[in-house]
Design a protein that fits this description.
Helix content: 40-55%
Number of helices: 6
Keywords: Membrane, Transmembrane, Transmembrane helix
Structural class: mainly alpha
Low-confidence stretches: none
Strand order of the largest sheet: 1-3-2
Oligomer: single chain
Number of domains: 2
Shape: elongated
Amino acid sequence: MAVLDFVVWYYPLGLYQNALVTDQLHSRHGLTILLIWSSVLFCSTFSYMVMTIMHNSATAVNVPVIYAETGIVSFDAPSTETCGDYLASQPASKAGRLLNPDSTTLCQVCTVANTDGLWTTLHMEFFG
């Protein structure tokens, strides 16, 4: 795989011409193919590691999402209701997670309560 990547990338881009000027053609060929080989090796072993850690899609299902301050949506609640009462009429899939249900002034909502909601926004479904 590394040799194929080397031939398809190194020669069409003309990188060998830089080595001709300094008379280092063979050493640069060797270094470049080692660089490509090590990146292919790293990518393949990294993917195996990730597959070992997350061996099925259920690992990322229904995990609570923790938002930074910038990811929280804030809005004013109606003066006669608490945030929890106001958002109770919203469908659960649309409401996300309400951070302060007893507040009567400023409601703070995480738009996605868990990873299931995040996957749904990306049109992905996991069954398990």
